[in-house]
Amino acid sequence: MVLKPFFVWQDKVLKKIRPEEVMLLATEENYTRIYLSDRTHYIVRSTLAGALKKLPLDVFIRVHRSYAASIFYVDTVERDHLTIGGTTIPIARQYYKSVIDQLTIIR
After folding, report:
1. What is the mean pLDDT of the chain?
2. Single pTM value for the model
3. Pick from 12, 17, 71, 78: most CB atoms within 10 A?
């Protein structure tokens, strides 16, 4: 699947980011930190909800008030957390069902 790239402002220059390289989005008030697979990150002035509106809905899963994860990088999912590249991310109780619903699960 080829996803349309998006751009973020960094040092007065627009930087292209491919959605398939984004592992995680984490919010800190009105700023969102975008973590990439090469362990770099960008900070944008946007709420998590605002950032998610501009990204592919079928790729990014809201897992917590402060976090959204890319389905491409989720390693494991448990009732209260998931892991991405060895990092544990909490799953809020109200988001667990939607997380499971957005994953393709073969039983």
Report:
1. 94
2. 0.91
3. 17
